[in-house]
Design goal:
Blueprint: H1 3-8, E1 14-15, H2 17-24, H3 28-36, E2 43-45, E3 48-52, H4 53-67, H5 72-85, H6 87-129
Antiparallel strand pairs: 1-3, 2-3
């Protein structure tokens, strides 16, 4: 890594709750919730929360996980694995959890496809029975 890059993002840089909320499009309430859940551990300067570079990286992982539907417990498992066993173990845990989530989403997609097919069939039957409703109008 270049020295210039280190000057831009040194590991000792800190962030306010406002800065992180603005950067990631999160709410202060969400960050406080993640703190309550033990996912973030900001320092305190009087009454203000002060987030470290590590907190910022953890928040990024938390928000990615939430975006793809991971539970708080799953995200905690991934983050705790890094703290306890390091990056390779964290990657293995993330891979296991991600594969399980893919399976869940594929099952959901199958249920959605089945529901769409059933509703499409019902619409066709109703349109055949009541041709005047073909455009969605009322009789």
């Amino acid at each position: 890594m270049s020295t210039l890059l280190n000057l831009r993002r040194p590991p000792y840089r800190t962030y306010s709750i406002t800065q992180l909320c603005r950067e990631f499009g999160a709410t202060p309430r969400a960050l406080r919730f993640y703190e309550e859940q033990g996912l973030l551990s900001p320092a305190r300067r009087e009454t203000a929360r002060v987030y470290s570079y590590k907190d910022r990286a953890r928040l990024q992982l938390i928000l990615r996980g939430r975006r793809v539907g991971l539970s708080i417990a799953e995200i905690r498992d991934i983050l705790d694995t890094y703290d306890e066993e390091g990056a390779p173990a964290q990657d293995a845990e993330a891979l296991r959890i991600h594969r399980r989530r893919i399976e869940q989403l594929q099952a959901q997609r199958q249920h959605v496809d089945e529901a769409i097919a059933e509703l499409t069939g019902a619409c066709e039957a109703l349109q055949n029975r009541y041709p005047e409703l073909k455009d969605g109008g009322t009789a």
